[in-house]
Amino acid sequence: MRRSGHSGGRVVAVAIVSTIAGLVVVSPPVVAQDASETAIQPKYGWREIYGGIDAARDQWFAYSGMTIAPFSPDIYSNGWRLRFGGGYGRYSYDTIGPHTNCGVAVSNDICTEQNRTRQHFDVSHSYAEALLGYYLQLGQLTAKAFAGASMSSEHHVDGVDPSHDNDGTEFGVKGALELWLTINDTAWSSLDLSYSTARNETASRWRTGWHVMPSLSIGPELRYDKNIETGDGAWNGRAGLFARYEWTGGEVSAAGGAAWWIDGWTPNDPSAYGTVNVMFRY
């Protein structure tokens, strides 16, 4: 999604998630084999639902989804995964209107700045995805890889901006890789990477946390986002702090910090951001 003025920093697929949730509630999983338990949390359930909201200056985004382990005894055992998700949000930006008084240069009738006014636009953005993946525990490293279909849609809700013609709905293929490393009893690090051919969307997030309490960890985070709205050679960057509280069967995390639209490694349009995410396993 484009940030204010430049950037690209997910209607929620509630029907899809609700349908899947109804099916998995009444249908027990087929257990293929037992696998070693991870060191992060005790085993708990084979279904995982999540949701969250992300906000910065002139933008907000809400999302939800579900991951299930159809052939594993629980969500922490090695095996196949199915993930369904979606989201919806809006952002706004200002721009200067195009030249209107353009004529013949040799007649000294060239474009002028007359009647060029600042215009404000609101844009809606939504996405949906259906992914097949695999969960693998490798000692202290947990790896999850996904691939599947994705949809991304964007529309100006209050007019047409001639300088931005990327409105519409795109369908494509998405891939994602999620890594979690348990460094020791008090520290961990994670890296999430994804790319979708729909609107050429790339995202990554790194976190490292330290347990200040057995169930509470805090630490820094960095994020990179890019799509067709950010512009050639430009991307959206974030740097902040997070807190994550976990319990048997769930977790909640909150983060905040500074965000920029970065063009040629020059930060522009600084903004504060905040995110809240919840996850339940059952």
Terminal residue distance: 32 Å
Average pLDDT rating:
83
Give the strand order of the largest sheet, numbering strands 1, 2, ... along the chain: 1-2-3-4-5-6-7-8-9-10-11-12
**Share of helix, binned:** under 10%
Unreliable stretches, pLDDT < 50, 5 or more residues? 1-41
> Biggest sheet: strands, sense, closure?
12 strands, antiparallel, barrel
Sum up the overall morphology in one term: globular
- Work out the number of β strands: 12
**Helix/strand/pairing category:** mainly beta
Cα gyration radius (Å) = 22 Å
Run of helices and strands: HEEEEEEEEEEEE
Total helical elements: 1
Tell me the β content.
over 45%
Could you walk me through the main structural features you see in this protein, from its secondary elements to its overall organization?
There is one protein chain. The protein is mainly β and 282 residues long. Strand 6 and strand 7 (187-196) form a beta hairpin. The chain is globular, with a radius of gyration of 22 Å. The protein contains 1 helix and 12 strands; from the N terminus they run H-E-E-E-E-E-E-E-E-E-E-E-E. Strands 1-2-3-4-5-6-7-8-9-10-11-12 form a 12-stranded antiparallel β-barrel.
